[in-house]
Amino acid sequence: MLQHYCDVNEADNFEALFGKTYIGQNPTQDRNSYLVLFFNFAMISSLPEQLQSSFEENINNEIDDFLTRFTIAIYRKLPGAF
Q1: CA 57, 47, 1 angle in degrees (round to 5)?
Q2: Using an 8 Å Cβ cutoff, are 81 and 75 in contact?
Q3: Residue range 36-72, pLDDT digits in tens
Q4: How many whole angstroms separate alpha carbon 26 and alpha carbon 19?
Q5: Distances (CA, A) of 61 to 12, 34, 75
Q6: How many CB atoms lie within 10 A of CB 8?
Q7: In degrees, to the nearest 5, what angle opens at C-alpha 6 toward C-alphas 33 and 63?
Q8: Nearest alpha-carbon partner for 26 in 36, 14, 34
Q9: Cα(66)–Cα(72) distance, rounded to whole angstroms?
Q10: Which of 69, 76, 74, 40 is nearest to 57 (CA)?
Q11: Is the pTM of this model over 0.90?
Q12: Rg for the chain (alpha carbons), in Å?
């Protein structure tokens, strides 16, 4: 839930997700103001021979997803970007 509360890309979903809750009616300054990098370690294989490669693949996939979702936001933060 915290991921959706803080993620800038979830601003359009804020009312549907939080509108009827206390935090939805009394949002903080953190509401939809961060680029959120989320890791789900449940997706990593627990088999010893696959653990490291599964971990690395999961991390790489999440970073690729992050860069895809936030490319425009990152670009706008660069000096000289419009």
Answers
A1: 55
A2: yes
A3: 999 999 989 999 999 999 999 999 999 999 999 888 7
A4: 9
A5: 25, 20, 20
A6: 14
A7: 95
A8: 14
A9: 11
A10: 40
A11: no
A12: 16
Structural tokens at position 43: 């997706």
Say if CB 33 and CB 8 are below 8 A apart: yes
Residue 25 CA to its chain's centroid (Å):
22
Instruction: Write out the DSSP string of 38-70.
Output: ---GGGS--STTTHHHHHHHHHHHHHHHHHHHH
- Which two structure tokens, joined as six digits, stand for 6? 């803080």
What is the residue whose two structure tokens read 């804020």? 14
Q: Please say whether the beta carbons of 58 and 39 come within 8 A.
A: yes
The tokens describing 42, both together, are 């449940």
